[in-house]
Amino acid sequence: MTSIRKSHLTLKALNESMIDLPAPKNISAWWNFGSLLSLCLALQILTGLFLAMHYTSDISTAFSSVVHICRDVNYGWLIRSIHANGASFFFICIYLHIGRGLYYGSYLNKEAWSAGVILLLLVMMTAFVGYVLPWGQMSFWGATVITNLLSAIPYVGENIVQWLWGGFSVDSATLTRFFAFHFLFPFGIIAMTLVHLLFLHEKGSSNPVGINSNADKIYFHPYFIYKDLIGFAWFALFLITLVLFIPNLLGDPENFTPANPLVTPPHIKPEWYFLFAYAILRSIPNKLGGVFALLASILILLIVPILHTSKWQNFAFRPLAQIFMGLLVVDVAILTWIGGMPVEPPFIIIGQIASFLYFFLFLVFFPLSGWLENKMLES
Amino acid sequence: MKFGDLARMRHIITFSLSPFEQKIFPNFFSEILPNTWRRFRGSFFRIAPPTALGYMVYSWGTNNHKESKRKKPEDYANDE
């Protein structure tokens, strides 16, 4: 007599992905970020839904509707703060999740990895359009700077930008459609997440040692259900600390001023999670070149599986690769710092060297280290 | 991927001791401390150098930029 969770059509899918799923015994805390991302998504959708009940997307009322949410709506200040800081935590989790994927060679599951890169792009697009919605100075000017980049496309660039804007500049038409996109994209994220998990569960999770773990698997429930719950508790602790004690730490004070197309802020910059890409964009003096570099900085992740040369899956036994990984992390931190700085010396040259190093690490240093380590193994 | 269809396992023998029949921190100075140092050496000297380099770049860049915003005393040496 098979239990209902194994025989029922829908419950069977749930059972095989979260209960009876064979999981490696030794997966570490770095494997918690996948479930944390699902938690982030659920949290953002829930808080976003409640915000959408009170937000209005017309330029004359958008800013004041956010003020109304914070001041008048019951616990509106809390919902808004969780949503804004939750977005930052989404990116913290996603970057740590990608870092885990790079270090432990999870990208060798090419289909899951590619689905993950598409997820990253979707999350970035959602966050970008979402930041415009409060209609503060940084919302307006950030949207103006980034959407104007599309005009670099030869011949059709200007037309594409005006089509996207719904007019000749970022205005009410832009805001209303950005609200629609911000509501819509998360459902695409949900769909892509299911695809990502589908590919993951074909082969199963990797593990910190990098060897085949089929001989030593344990049931997902209860072990990793409880481990993930502990991860959720830590996540909730950090998020609620930020939300209740320092809610504006990661924000820009410029966004407390309503958008004014006649007044340009002295330092236009995106939120912290886009700063590394912003630095790469600004490092190239040519507009189209900068746009290509910006796209390449994310899309390079798609070719990482092809550039894998090592006989080992992960970096645990690869000293050179570990040093280069440390260098990559520090390089992205430097790029994040530079992205928030004005375009003045010596930040210009530091940004250019750091941008060059970013691509050089992926395209040359990592494959080279794999080849060298294989040679060391032979000798 | 399903339990019952993972890998062929043969001759699995496991041994263990009762917790009442062993010390909790055996050979602390002869094994545990050297092993802790081994694990520290294995990761610290691969993470610390890039981090130190990154901090030096940040520190130099910030100071250099601050200096560039200051007036140079030499330019006003012959005033009055």
UniProtKB/TrEMBL annotation, chain A:
Q: How is the cofactor bound?
A: Binds 2 heme groups non-covalently.
Does the keyword Transport feature in the UniProt annotation? yes
**Membrane-spanning segments:** 30-56, 77-98, 113-133, 140-157, 177-200, 229-250, 288-308, 320-340, 346-366
> Which cofactor does this sequence's record say it needs?
heme; heme b
Topological category with respect to the lipid bilayer: Multi-pass membrane protein
For the biological process aspect of GO, one term held by this record is: mitochondrial electron transport, ubiquinol to cytochrome c
MF-aspect GO terms: metal ion binding; oxidoreductase activity; quinol-cytochrome-c reductase activity
Q: Could you confirm whether the keyword Iron appears in this record?
A: yes
Q: Where does a ubiquinone bind?
A: 201
Q: Which UniProt keywords apply?
A: Electron transport, Heme, Iron, Membrane, Metal-binding, Mitochondrion, Mitochondrion inner membrane, Respiratory chain, Transmembrane, Transmembrane helix, Transport, Ubiquinone
Assign the protein's first listed, main location to one coarse class: mitochondrion
What does the UniProt function comment say about this protein? Component of the ubiquinol-cytochrome c reductase complex (complex III or cytochrome b-c1 complex) that is part of the mitochondrial respiratory chain. The b-c1 complex mediates electron transfer from ubiquinol to cytochrome c. Contributes to the generation of a proton gradient across the mitochondrial membrane that is then used for ATP synthesis.
Quote the protein name from its UniProt record: Cytochrome b
Please give the organism.
Answer: Kryptolebias marmoratus (Mangrove killifish)
TrEMBL record, chain B:
Described function: Component of the ubiquinol-cytochrome c oxidoreductase, a multisubunit transmembrane complex that is part of the mitochondrial electron transport chain which drives oxidative phosphorylation. The complex plays an important role in the uptake of multiple carbon sources present in different host niches.
Q: Which family does it belong to?
A: Belongs to the UQCRQ/QCR8 family.
Its GO CC terms are: mitochondrial inner membrane; respiratory chain complex III
Which Pfam family, an example, fits this chain?
A: UcrQ
On subunit structure and binding partners, the annotation says: Component of the ubiquinol-cytochrome c oxidoreductase (cytochrome b-c1 complex, complex III, CIII), a multisubunit enzyme composed of 11 subunits. The complex is composed of 3 respiratory subunits cytochrome b, cytochrome c1 and Rieske protein UQCRFS1, 2 core protein subunits UQCRC1/QCR1 and UQCRC2/QCR2, and 6 low-molecular weight protein subunits UQCRH/QCR6, UQCRB/QCR7, UQCRQ/QCR8, UQCR10/QCR9, UQCR11/QCR10 and subunit 9, the cleavage product of Rieske protein UQCRFS1.
Signal peptide positions (record): none
**Cellular localization per UniProt:** Mitochondrion inner membrane
Q: Which Gene3D superfamilies match?
A: Cytochrome b-c1 complex subunit 8 (1.20.5.210)
Q: What is this protein called?
A: Cytochrome b-c1 complex subunit 8
Work out whether the entry's keyword set contains Magnesium: no
Superkingdom as given in the UniProt entry = Eukaryota
Give the membrane topology, semicolon-separated if more than one: Single-pass membrane protein
Annotated keywords: Electron transport, Membrane, Mitochondrion, Mitochondrion inner membrane, Respiratory chain, Transmembrane, Transmembrane helix, Transport
- Listed GO biological process terms: mitochondrial electron transport, ubiquinol to cytochrome c
